[in-house]
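Dear support,

I submitted the protein below through the web form. The confirmation email said the job was done, but the results page showed an empty box. After a refresh the structure appeared. I'm attaching both so you can tell me whether what I see now is the final result or a partial one.
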Amino acid sequence: MMNEMKIDVVLLTKNSVSRNAPGVFEESLESIMRNVPVNQLIVVDGFSKDGTLDLIHQFFSNVKVIRTRALRGKAREIGIKHVKTSHFMFVDDDVILCKDWFNKAFQYFNNSSVGAVWGADIPWSPRLEKDTILTCDNMRTHLAELMISNFKIRGGTHDILIRTDIVKDMKIPRGLHLFEDNYIKQYIENKGFKVIATSDPYCIHKRKCEADQWDIDTGVQMAYLRMKYGRQRKTFYYMAKNFLRSFPKTFLIWRLSKDYIPANKQLLMYYYMFLGYLKARFGLNLKR
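What the results page shows now:
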């Protein structure tokens, strides 16, 4: 399949070398090169100053760089405008694609009703050896199922293959710098196409967790954006259910990695999102 067609890949960057853990961005680029038939790498860059673009050119020769200060939602829209192929991918700068990612994903498009295919993002802990997570099929499957369940509510653009014609004219709200992935998912579904979430292909998500920087104000900001742009229901029941769903996810992260820190940070993110919702929705006077 990789010899029969090529696709454009849209990559959002901003100091990706230094912002991620050491070596992660390089590993991400290598996984794209090995597992996706890249026609052109479209880099929407937020004026990186740490050698991010130089590193990209070491891996890819056909690169189009668009430098912009646009927020994430609008940056994705800009990237789509430069796509020339029938299908394209969004790949985040901190994910490692599994072997044969494209070949596994593209087969779903044999069904004409499919508009996009997303591979489960498997959370990563630095204390876990790579070979262990890839050979622990049972644990990876359970974790992937949990992430798929989360995707159906939240959406995601970690590693997603999309039919270009469906989203070519999409206008993402300029102020939507969070949850733009959910906006894209709903846009495709509202056009009558399916968005497939699958455990194979998948990606390893080596996110540098910043949940320890969260507080009530951050939670309020996220809750406000979600409600303003219709990215979530406004009922207390829905938000409480979403918060409770974080517990099994947190437990699996701990069980997989035996690392308390990323598991605790994951729970904190959902905790502050829930408190932020309460404050944004009901005006409650909550403190950290």
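Response: this is the final, complete result; the empty box was a page-load delay. Residues 211-283 form one domain.
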